[in-house]
Amino acid sequence: ATLYAVVPAAGVGKRMGGALPKQYLPLHGRPILSHTLSCLLSHPRVAQVIVAVGPDDEYFSDLPEAADPRLTRVTGGAERADSVRLALQAVAAEDAWALVHDAARPCLRHEDIDRLLAQCGEQGAILASPVRDTMKRAGGDGCIDHTVERAQLWHALTPQLFPAGALHRALCEAEQQGASITDEASAMERQGWQPRLVSGRPDNIKVTHPDDLRLAQLFLA
Ligand code: CTP
Ligand code: MG
User: Fold this and answer.
1) What is the CB < 6 Å shell around ligand 1?
2) What is the predicted pLDDT for the residue at 92?
3) CA–CA distance, 37 with 47 (Å, rounded to integer)
4) Is the confidence at residue 188, as pLDDT, over 90?
């Protein structure tokens, strides 16, 4: 099957603050999105990359990767799930699979993609990391209501891998039903799919807050 990488990069980075959207902040001398795209474009199994950028994006075309003929730029939407749904419309191949990866996760490595591809079943798969800390559910008053069993809890990371057509239909249906979707797997779970959890490296972080930039700097060094 043809493998498309789909990269939601249309966020404004509100939690990061600042005027420049976080995917364009420099990390070791080039924008975060450049690290993300070069990892995907250089993977031997990735045939095409579709990037969803904001409607007024003035930075994307300056990336060294923007000129790659295997890269398609589309305009994203209001929420991350809208950006992924719109990007999937640009998938041409009937039998395509989509590897959806956040622009804001520049520490991705080929070994992550390899592990996900190797362990993916028919129901799709996501990279995830087991929760390390003891988990508490808060009561209404800011005090602990109870301790949540940790053994079965995972952090959902990206990439997440699904048949492109089925994922597109799942995201369209979730949108029509007004369901809030924060990752691809949750859209598929609503359809009764049981995606596999594949152990990812915990340093495949999403750059969300200013502190994460320093961490990403270390992980990429
Ligand atoms: N994203 C997107 N379209 C949106 C919102 C987010 O393509 N409407 C992308 C972001 O660019 C990012 C990824 O989805 O690569 C993960 O989202 P997040 O970390 O929440 O990024 P932002 O939405 O930009 O940050 P914030 O929520 O702090 O504003
Ligand atoms: Mg966001």
Assistant:
1) 8-15, 23, 52, 76-80, 83, 102-104, 206, 208
2) 87
3) 13
4) yes
